[in-house]
C-alpha cells in the first residue's frame, strides 16, 4: 500500500534496463533443452490485465514444464503498441492465439489482420469486430452476411436455457452456460458440438482464473490442437462460485450468501454490531487471483469502523448481486407497504446495508458489456438502487492507467469513462480512484494509496451518519455566491431566484423537523441579513463585534487554521500569500498569533448561511483559478475548514453542506483535472463533507466539475419558462408602416417609403438624406424587396424565444408558464411534424407528449424533495442533463442527480449530419464574402456544454470542414475519424484551429485524441497542398523549423488543470487599456496544444500560424437560456479570438465570426453582429424581458447588470459599437425613473454597475452619449455611489451603537 509520501517515488520507480526483443519483462516461455520435432506455439494477449501479467507468466512456466514441445508467448495490450514487431513475429508462427479484453480500435484492426492466418483463434470479451475472428475447427463467430455480429444462433439458443426471464440477466446466463456447457456437450455427437465444447472448455479455464487453471488451459490447447502429450493431463477446471463473499481472516474460503458471511463475521468479531455495513462489489477474477489490494481494502474499512461486505462478481452481474443479495430497511418497509414491486429473486439470505461501493466501475447492469446499451441498462440500475435507497459509491484502482500519469495529468481516456462517465449514468456519487498500476520492479502490480482509502472511508461514514443523526440535531451549512465582487452578485445564481428558493427550502426543512430558528417572512430580508454579515467580514467590522458573532458571524484565528491544515498545506498556502497565514490582506484583521479571519455568515438555528469567499484580491479577483500551483488564500481555506471541523474543535461541525445554485468556485480550485488526489484543493477543503449541490438541469457540463472534483451530489432545478420576444415601441410602429406600404394604392409613393426608412433607422444625415435614399429606392424598384426583408426580420425577431425571469426551487409552473413551456417545445423544439405527417395518430402522439411533459413539469416540487433526500443520506435518482426544447420529457422531472453522456458516443448521427451541414454553410458564407475563394483555416470552439447537449454538433462541424466522418464499431462507440477521399469530398480540406474549453479538454479526452490523430493523418496525406490546407500549413511550419508534432498540432486550450481565458475577468474588473490587450490575453491563455503525445505543450508559433490564416470563427450556441449576450464566456473566447486574429492580420477586420444556434431546426451560421442585434432587441432592450427579470428582485437586477458588462466585452473584442444599443440601454434601465428605482431598491450595487458600464462605454469611445444623457448618467452614478457608501456608514454606526449598549 502506498502512503501519500511514498506515492511519487513508487510512481516513478525505474523500469527494467537493457530490454531487447526478449529481455526485460519475459514474454517467451519454452524448454530450451527440448530436442523433439513436435512444437506447438500458443500466443496469449491479455488486455486490461497488466496486473495479472506475473500470474500468466507463472502459468506459462508451469505448462511448458509439463508439456514438452509447448512454446507460449505472453503479451498484454500495452505490447500491441510498444512491441508490435515482436507480437507480429510470435503470431506469424502461432498454432493458437488467445486474446481477451482488447478494445482499442487501432489495436483491434492491427491484430485482426494478423491473427486471421492462425488456424485456431479464441477471442473473448473484446470488441465484436475482433471476437468475430474466433474460429475453433468448425465453430466460428464470424457474422453471417446481412446479420449483426455476435453469437451464432445455436449458441444463442443454448444461452436462452441458462438465463432468467429478466432481459438484464441474460449475460449472467452466459456465464452459467460457460460453466455447464462443456459437460452437456460431451453427450451431443458431431464435429460442431465437439468444437463448441472445446471453445467452452477453454473459456471455462480462463474464466475460472488462477495459475493452475490457466496452466491447464495451455496444456489442454496443446493436447487438443497440437497432439502434444503433457506429463500429466490437463486437470478439470478448479471451480469457484460465480458470486460469493470473502474475508482475509478466512483465506481460501468463499461464503455462499451474505447471511452466512455476516453470521460468521459477527461471531468472529463481536462488538461491531453498531458499525455501518458497506456492500463492496469486487471483481471475481481479482479475488481468484488473490490480488493483495482486496485484503488491504477490507482491512482498511475495518480500521475505520466500517463493516465490509466484500461481494465478488464476474463483472456482468453487479446488478444481480445488489438486487438479490443486498437489501435495506427502506426496501423492506416499501415491500411491506406495497409501494414498490415485489422482487421475486430477492434472496432470503439478503442482508441490510448502509451503502454500496463498486470497485468495478462500468455500468452496474452488465459491467463492460452493459456499456453497449447505456440508457436502457441505466434505467434498470436506477430502479434497483432506488429500491435500496442507500448511497452508491464508485471507488476503484485504475486498471488501465498508472499512478504516475494520474498524478501528472489526471485520469483520461477510457479509464475516465469506466470510472466516471458510465457509473454516473446509474447515480453513482463521490468517485474516488483508490490507486493504480505501478511501475518498476513490481511492474503491473495494483497499489492502493493510503490517503485515498481514508478519503473513501470518511465520506462513507459521513453520508451514512446523516440518516442516523436526528434532523433536529443536523448541522447544515448553506453556501451562497458573491462573484464577481462589488457589482451586486451576492446571493445570486444563474437562472435561479436564490432568496425565494432559499426561503422555501429552509421553510420546508423546518416542516421536516430541522432546527432553522426564526426566519424572516421576506426572502429578500433573509438575503440582506447574509449580505450584511458578509460585508462585515469584508470590511473588518465583524472583528471583536458581539452583534456579528451573535448573529452567527464566524471568526477563525491563524493558529487554529494552521492546526486544521497541518504543516504541509500551511506551508503551501503561506508561500503563495505573503509568507504566512496573516498576510494575505483578505478579510484578515491583526497580525501574528492574534490575527483573525472573518468568515461572515448568519446562523438560523442549526443552519449556517454564508457567502463563499472571494478567490483573490481586489483587482485580481479570480487569481486562484488560473495558476495551477496556486492555493486558496488563508481566509478561503478557513471558511471550508470551519464547516468541516466539529464544534469542540472550534468549527461549525456541519453534517452536510449545500452549495446553492450554479455555480461556486470550490470545484474549480487547483489540482488534477480529473481524479482528485490528496494534493488537490477541492479534496483538501471539502473532501470529507457530504456536498449537496443545487444546479440548473440544462448545464450537464460545468456540473461535471461540481460532481467529480467537488464531490457534489447534484440536485437539478428547472429553467425559467420561455417567452416570445414579441415587438415593442418602434418595432411595432415599423411593422405597421410596412403593412401600410404594402396595402397602399400607390406603392411607389416616396412619402410612404420615407416613413419606413425613418423608422427602420440606419441612415445618418437627417431628413434630406432619408428623402434621397427613398427616392433612389423607389426609382430603382428596390423598396418592395427591402420591405419584404424587413418584414421577415421582424417576424423572426417577434418569434424569438428567451428565458423569462428566474426559476424558484420547487415551484411548479402556473398556467401561463405551462403554456409557454409547451408552446416552445412544440413550435421550436425537437417536436417536428411535416404536412404529410399530420395524421390522427400523430396528433394523438402530440397530445400524449404534451400531457406527459405537463405532468412532469408539475413535479418541479421534487426539486425540494431531492435536496431533502440528499440531506437525509438517501439515493438521489439520476437523470440526463439537457433542456426541454431539445430533449423533451427526457430531462424531466427535475430534482435529480444529473449526469452527462458516454463520451465515446459523440458525435451522434444527428449531430454529425447537422455539423456537416453547418460546415458546408460556413464555407459558403466565407466564399460569398471573399470572391468565391475557399477558406484556408476556420476556427471552431468546442465546449463541453454544447458537446453534451447536442451530442457533438461542434465536433461534426470540425469533421465536416476537414472532410472526415466517424467510424462506429459494432458496440456503438466512435473509434476513429476517417478522411473522406478528395474525389468524393469535391473541395479542398479546410484547416481547423480547434479551441477547447477546459471542461471539453478534460471530459472528452478520447475525442481530443481522435481529432489529433485525424489532423496528423490529414497533414501526411498524399494530396496536393492546394486541396489540403492542413497539409499546406504543416509543410510551411516544418519549413520554418517546427517539428512534425508542432506542425500538426491543431487542438489548443488553457494550460492543463486550468480554466478560462481570463478575458472576462479583465473586462469585469476594467483591467485593460487597449483592445489588443484582450486579444493577447486570449492567445497567451490558449497557446497550449493537446493530443496523443502531449497534454498542454506550449506552441505559440503554431497557434500564430493558424490564426494568421483564419478567415472565420464558428461558435455553437446550444440553448435559449445562454445566448451571446447572456454570459461572459462568449465574448471572452469567441470575441477575444477574433480580436487576436484580426490584430495578427494587421487589423483589417477580415476575420469574421459566425454563430450556429444549435437549438434551431436548421443549423444555419449567422454573422455574429446579426445575432447580437437579434439578442439585444429580443432581450436586453425588450420591455417584456426587462420587466420579467427586474421583477425577480436582487437576482434579476444582477442579471441585467451582467449583460451590461457583456456589452462592454463585445464592444472591446469584436468592435460591436452600434449607438442604438447603448442609447436604448440607458433609456431603459438608467433614465426611466420607475425602472431605475426598482433596480436601485433591489440591488444598488448592480444598478451602480449598470450605470458605470454605460459611462465606461462612453469613456472608451464605444459610444458617444449625448451631452444631456451623459450628465444624467454621471449624476445618477454619483448618487448611487454615495447611497451605497452612506448605507455602509449607517451599518457601521449601528454596529458601534449596539456594542456600546452591550458594554453598558
UniProtKB/TrEMBL annotation:
Pfam families with a match to the protein in the record: CobN-Mg_chel, DUF3479
EC id: 6.6.1.1
The keyword Metal-binding belongs to this UniProt entry's keyword annotation: no
Residue span(s) of domain CobN/magnesium chelatase: 203-826, 855-1268
Catalytic activity: protoporphyrin IX + Mg(2+) + ATP + H2O = Mg-protoporphyrin IX + ADP + phosphate + 3 H(+)
Disordered as annotated region, ranges: 1-30
GO molecular function, one term: magnesium chelatase activity
Keywords associated with the record: ATP-binding, Chlorophyll biosynthesis, Ligase, Nucleotide-binding, Photosynthesis
Pathway note: Porphyrin-containing compound metabolism
Keyword Cytoplasm included in the entry's annotation: no
Magnesium chelatase subunit H N-terminal domain residues: 41-200
Domain of life where this protein originates: Eukaryota
Annotated coiled-coil segments of the chain: none
GO biological process: chlorophyll biosynthetic process; photosynthesis
Membrane-spanning residues: none
PANTHER family: MAGNESIUM-CHELATASE SUBUNIT CHLH, CHLOROPLASTIC (PTHR44119)
Membership in a protein family: Belongs to the Mg-chelatase subunit H family.
Protein name: magnesium chelatase
Protein's organism: Guillardia theta (strain CCMP2712)
Amino acid at each position: 500500500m502506498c502512503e501519500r509520501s511514498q506515492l511519487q517515488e513508487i510512481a516513478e520507480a525505474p523500469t527494467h534496463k537493457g530490454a531487447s526483443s526478449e529481455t526485460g519483462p519475459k514474454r517467451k516461455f519454452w524448454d530450451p533443452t527440448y530436442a523433439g520435432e513436435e512444437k506447438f506455439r500458443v500466443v496469449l494477449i491479455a488486455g486490461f490485465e497488466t496486473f495479472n501479467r506475473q500470474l500468466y507468466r507463472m502459468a506459462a512456466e508451469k505448462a511448458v514444464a509439463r508439456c514438452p514441445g509447448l512454446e507460449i508467448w505472453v503479451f498484454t495490450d500495452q505490447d500491441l503498441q510498444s512491441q508490435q514487431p515482436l507480437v507480429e513475429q510470435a503470431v506469424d508462427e502461432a498454432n493458437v492465439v488467445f486474446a481477451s479484453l482488447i478494445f482499442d480500435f487501432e489495436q483491434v484492426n492491427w491484430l485482426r489482420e494478423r491473427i486471421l492466418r492462425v488456424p485456431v483463434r479464441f477471442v473473448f470479451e473484446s470488441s465484436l469486430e475482433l471476437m468475430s475472428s474466433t474460429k475453433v475447427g468448425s465453430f466460428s463467430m464470424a457474422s453471417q452476411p446481412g446479420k449483426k455480429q455476435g453469437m451464432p444462433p445455436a449458441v444463442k439458443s443454448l444461452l436462452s436455457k441458462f438465463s432468467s426471464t429478466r432481459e438484464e440477466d441474460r449475460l449472467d446466463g452466459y456465464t452459467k452456460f460457460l460453466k455447464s456447457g462443456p459437460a452437456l456437450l460431451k453427450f451431443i455427437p458431431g464435429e460442431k458440438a465437439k468444437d463448441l465444447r472445446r471453445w467452452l472448455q477453454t473459456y471455462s479455464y480462463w474464466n475460472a482464473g488462477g495459475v493452475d487453471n490457466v496452466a491447464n488451459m495451455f496444456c489442454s490447447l496443446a493436447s487438443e490442437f497440437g497432439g502434444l502429450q503433457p506429463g500429466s493431463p490437463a486437470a478439470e477446471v478448479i471451480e469457484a462460485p460465480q458470486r460469493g463473499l470473502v474475508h482475509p481472516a478466512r483465506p481460501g474460503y468463499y461464503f455462499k450468501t451474505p447471511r452466512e458471511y455476516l453470521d460468521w463475521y459477527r461471531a468472529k468479531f463481536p462488538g461491531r454490531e453498531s458499525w455501518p455495513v458497506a456492500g463492496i462489489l469486487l471483481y471475481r477474477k481479482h479475488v481468484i487471483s488473490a490480488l493483495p489490494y482486496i485484503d488491504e481494502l477490507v482491512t482498511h474499512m475495518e480500521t475505520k469502523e466500517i463493516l465490509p461486505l466484500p461481494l465478488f462478481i464476474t463483472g456482468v452481474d453487479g446488478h444481480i448481486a445488489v438486487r438479490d443479495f443486498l437489501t435495506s430497511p427502506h426496501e423492506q418497509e416499501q415491500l411491506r407497504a406495497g409501494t414498490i414491486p415485489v422482487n421475486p429473486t430477492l434472496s432470503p439470505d439478503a442482508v441490510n446495508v448502509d451503502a454500496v461501493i463498486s470497485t468495478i466501475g462500468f455500468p452496474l447492469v452488465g459491467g463492460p458489456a452493459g456499456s453497449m446499451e447505456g440508457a436502457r441498462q441505466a434505467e434498470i440500475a436506477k430502479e434497483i438502487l432506488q429500491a435500496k435507497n442507500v448511497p452508491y459509491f464508485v471507488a476503484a484502482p485504475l486498471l488501465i492507467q498508472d499512478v504516475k500519469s494520474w498524478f501528472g495529468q489526471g485520469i483520461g481516456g477510457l479509464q475516465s469513462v469506466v470510472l466516471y462517465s458510465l457509473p454516473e449514468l446509474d447515480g453513482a456519487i463521490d468517485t474516488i480512484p483508490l490507486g493504480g498500476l505501478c511501475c518498476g520492479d513490481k511492474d503491473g502490480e495494483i497499489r492502493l494509496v493510503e490517503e485515498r482509502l481514508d478519503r473513501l472511508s470518511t465520506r462513507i461514514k459521513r453520508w451514512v451518519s446523516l440518516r442516523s443523526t436526528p434532523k433536529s440535531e443536523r448541522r447544515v451549512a448553506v453556501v451562497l455566491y458573491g462573484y464577481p465582487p462589488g457589482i451586486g452578485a451576492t446571493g445570486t445564481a444563474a437562472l435561479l431566484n436564490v432568496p425565494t428558493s432559499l426561503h422555501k427550502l429552509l421553510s420546508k426543512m423546518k416542516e421536516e423537523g430541522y432546527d432553522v430558528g426564526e426566519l424572516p417572512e421576506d426572502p429578500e430580508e433573509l438575503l440582506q441579513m447574509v449580505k450584511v454579515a458578509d460585508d462585515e467580514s469584508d470590511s473588518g467590522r465583524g472583528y471583536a463585534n458581539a452583534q456579528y458573532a451573535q448573529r452567527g458571524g464566524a471568526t477563525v484565528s491563524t493558529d487554529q487554521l494552521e492546526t486544521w491544515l497541518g504543516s504541509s498545506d500551511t506551508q503551501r498556502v503561506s508561500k503563495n500569500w505573503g509568507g504566512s497565514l496573516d498576510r494575505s490582506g483578505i478579510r484578515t484583521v491583526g497580525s501574528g498569533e492574534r490575527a483573525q479571519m472573518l468568515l461572515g455568515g448568519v446562523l438560523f438555528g442549526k443552519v449556517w448561511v454564508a457567502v463563499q469567499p472571494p478567490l483573490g484580491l481586489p483587482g485580481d479577483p479570480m487569481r486562484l483559478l488560473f495558476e495551477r500551483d496556486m492555493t486558496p488564500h488563508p481566509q478561503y481555506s478557513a471558511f471550508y475548514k470551519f464547516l468541516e471541523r466539529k464544534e469542540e474543535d472550534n468549527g461549525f461541525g456541519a453534517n452536510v453542506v449545500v452549495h446553492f445554485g450554479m455555480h461556486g468556485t470550490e470545484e474549480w480550485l487547483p489540482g488534477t483535472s480529473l481524479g482528485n488526489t490528496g494534493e488537490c484543493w477541492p479534496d483538501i477543503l471539502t473532501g470529507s463533507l457530504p456536498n449537496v449541490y443545487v444546479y440548473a438541469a440544462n448545464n450537464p457540463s460545468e456540473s461535471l466539475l461540481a460532481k467529480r472534483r467537488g464531490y457534489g451530489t447534484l440536485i437539478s432545478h428547472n429553467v425559467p419558462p420561455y417567452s416570445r420576444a414579441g415587438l415593442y415601441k418602434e418595432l411595432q410602429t415599423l411593422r405597421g408602416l410596412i403593412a401600410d406600404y404594402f396595402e397602399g394604392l400607390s406603392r411607389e409613393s416616396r412619402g410612404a417609403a420615407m416613413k419606413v426608412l425613418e423608422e427602420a433607422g440606419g441612415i445618418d444625415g437627417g431628413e434630406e438624406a432619408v428623402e434621397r435614399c427613398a427616392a433612389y429606392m423607389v426609382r430603382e424598384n428596390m423598396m418592395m424587396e427591402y420591405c419584404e426583408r424587413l418584414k421577415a426580420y421582424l417576424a423572426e425577431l417577434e418569434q424569438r424565444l428567451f428565458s423569462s425571469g428566474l426559476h424558484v426551487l420547487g415551484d411548479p409552473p402556473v398556467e401561463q408558464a405551462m403554456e409557454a413551456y409547451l408552446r416552445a417545445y412544440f413550435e421550436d423544439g425537437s417536436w417536428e411534424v411535416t404536412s404529410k405527417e399530420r395524421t390522427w395518430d400523430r396528433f394523438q402522439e402530440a397530445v400524449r407528449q404534451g400531457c406527459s411533459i405537463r405532468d412532469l413539469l408539475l413535479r418541479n416540487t421534487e426539486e425540494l424533495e431531492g435536496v431533502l433526500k440528499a440531506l437525509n443520506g438517501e439515493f438521489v435518482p439520476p437523470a440526463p442533463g439537457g433542456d426541454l426544447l431539445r430533449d423533451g420529457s427526457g430531462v424531466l422531472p427535475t430534482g435529480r442527480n444529473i449526469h452527462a453522456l458516454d463520451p465515446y458516443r459523440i458525435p451522434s448521427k444527428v449531430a454529425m449530419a447537422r455539423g456537416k451541414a453547418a460546415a458546408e454553410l460556413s464555407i459558403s458564407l466565407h466564399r460569398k464574402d471573399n470572391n468565391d475563394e475557399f477558406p484556408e483555416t476556420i476556427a471552431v470552439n468546442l465546449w463541453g456544454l454544447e458537446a453534451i447537449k447536442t451530442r457533438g454538433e461542434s465536433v461534426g462541424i470540425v469533421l465536416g470542414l476537414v472532410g472526415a466522418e466517424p467510424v462506429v464499431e459494432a458496440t456503438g462507440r466512435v473509434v476513429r475519424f476517417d478522411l473522406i477521399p478528395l474525389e468524393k469530398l469535391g473541395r479542398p480540406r479546410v484547416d481547423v484551429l480547434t479551441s477547447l474549453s477546459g471542461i471539453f479538454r478534460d471530459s472528452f479526452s478520447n475525442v481530443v485524441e481522435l481529432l489529433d490523430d485525424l489532423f496528423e493523418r490529414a497533414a501526411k496525406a498524399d494530396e496536393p497542398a492546394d486541396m489540403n490546407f492542413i497539409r499546406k500549413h504543416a509543410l510551411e511550419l516544418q519549413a520554418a523549423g517546427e517539428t512534425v508534432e508542432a506542425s500538426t498540432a491543431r487542438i489548443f486550450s488553457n494550460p492543463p488543470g486550468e480554466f478560462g481565458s481570463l478575458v472576462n475577468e479583465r473586462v469585469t474588473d476594467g483591467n485593460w487599456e487597449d483592445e489588443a490587450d484582450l486579444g493577447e490575453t486570449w492567445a497567451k491563455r490558449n497557446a497550449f496544444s493537446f493530443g496523443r503525445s502531449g497534454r498542454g505543450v506550449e506552441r505559440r508559433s503554431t497557434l500564430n500560424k493558424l490564426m494568421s490564416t483564419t478567415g472565420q470563427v464558428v461558435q455553437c450556441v446550444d440553448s435559449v437560456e445562454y445566448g451571446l449576450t447572456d454570459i461572459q464566456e462568449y465574448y471572452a473566447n469567441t470575441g477575444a479570438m477574433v480580436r487576436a486574429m484580426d490584430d495578427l492580420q494587421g487589423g483589417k477586420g477580415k476575420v469574421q465570426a459566425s454563430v450556429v444556434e444549435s437549438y434551431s431546426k436548421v443549423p444555419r451560421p449567422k454573422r455574429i453582429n446579426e445575432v447580437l442585434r437579434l439578442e439585444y432587441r429580443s432581450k436586453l432592450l425588450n420591455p417584456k424581458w426587462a420587466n420579467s427579470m427586474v421583477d425577480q428582485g436582487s437576482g434579476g437586477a444582477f442579471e441585467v447588470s451582467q449583460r451590461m458588462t457583456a456589452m462592454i466585452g463585445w464592444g472591446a473584442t469584436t468592435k460591436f459599437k452600434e449607438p442604438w444599443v447603448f442609447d436604448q440601454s440607458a433609456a431603459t434601465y438608467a433614465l426611466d425613473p420607475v425602472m431605475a428605482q426598482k433596480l436601485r431598491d433591489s440591488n444598488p450595487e448592480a444598478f451602480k454597475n449598470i450605470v458605470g458600464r454605460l459611462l465606461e462605454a462612453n469613456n472608451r469611445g464605444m459610444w458617444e452619449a449625448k451631452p444631456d444623457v451623459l450628465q444624467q448618467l454621471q449624476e445618477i452614478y454619483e448618487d448611487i455611489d454615495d447611497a451605497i457608501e452612506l448605507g455602509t456608514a449607517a451599518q457601521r454606526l449601528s454596529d458601534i451603537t449596539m456594542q456600546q449598549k452591550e458594554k453598558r
